[in-house]
UniProtKB/TrEMBL annotation:
UniProt keyword list: Kinase, Nucleotide-binding, Transferase
Protein species of origin: Stephania cephalantha
Enzymatic reactions: AMP + ATP = 2 ADP
Role: Catalyzes the reversible transfer of the terminal phosphate group between ATP and AMP. Plays an important role in cellular energy homeostasis and in adenine nucleotide metabolism.
Stated name of the protein: adenylate kinase
CDD domains: ADK
Assigned EC number: 2.7.4.3
């Protein structure tokens, strides 16, 4: 099947040059297959775009990929939707299949960052099996290690201005007037899952299910621990040091 022609004539030269320079830079980067593991609020979401751009990797967030497969009505997406409509969890095999599909995209040529998967040792084994079939493997697991008490302070202090998305933190970035947006003066709200009770149950699930995944990959010698309680810039340099080792 012939690939659809792309009309490059109408793409601004600056955009073409930017993409060309990006691809030339990417050509010199080593391939990497990286998994980010850490509890909610540990900063994975802050660091993944930086890693993605620096190493020219594709970012595979399983929740987003599932939604994309469902809306694109791929065969796996249709199966996933059937499970979701019944209120069932999407099976591990289906999720691994969707990751397998996503990895064939040109943007994943240099490798990937996996975020939100694997959450259990069973999933990790299935992922390793699928990668082995492709002749590759996980190169590194970045473990965003952080104390639960630090997370509680981080997460329960978050406040949001709903209409603009501006975020504040009662300790680290407080609004000028407590509970009020700096720009509009409108009241700030908290996300439903930014409460101590919700965090506690999410952390319990993380320690129960996902902690063993770290031990599983540690046996393979691919885990690097990141001190995730540090300020974001320091975490970034730790991540870069780990990835360049």
């Amino acid at each position: 099947m012939a690939s659809p022609s792309v009309d490059l004539e109408n793409v601004p030269s600056a955009d073409l040059m930017t993409e060309l320079l990006r691809r030339m830079k990417c050509a010199t980067k080593p391939d990497k297959r990286v998994i980010l593991i850490g509890p909610p609020g540990s900063g994975k979401g802050t660091q993944s775009p930086i890693i993605k751009d620096e190493y020219c990797l594709c970012h595979l967030a399983t929740g987003d990929m599932l939604r994309a497969a469902v809306s694109a009505k791929t065969p796996l997406g249709i199966k996933a939707k059937e499970a979701m409509d019944k209120g069932e969890l999407v099976s591990d095999d289906l999720v691994v299949g969707i990751i397998d599909e996503a990895m064939k995209k040109p943007s994943c040529q240099k490798g990937f960052i996996l975020d939100g998967f694997p959450r259990t040792v069973v999933q990790a084994k299935k992922l390793d099996e699928m990668l082995a079939n492709q002749g590759t493997k996980v190169d590194m697991v970045l473990n965003f290690a952080i104390d639960d008490t630090v997370l509680e302070e981080r997460i329960t202090g978050r406040w949001i201005h709903p209409s603009s998305g501006r975020t504040y933190h009662s300790k680290f970035a407080p609004p000028k007037v407590p509970g009020v947006d700096d720009v509009t003066g409108e009241p700030l709200t908290q996300r439903k899952d930014d409460t101590a009770a919700v965090l506690k149950s999410r952390l319990e699930a993380f320690h129960r299910q996902t902690q063993p995944v770290i031990a599983y990959y540690a046996q393979k010698g691919v885990v690097k621990n990141i001190s995730a309680e540090k300020p974001p810039q320091e975490v970034t340099s730790e991540v870069q040091k780990a990835l360049s080792s």
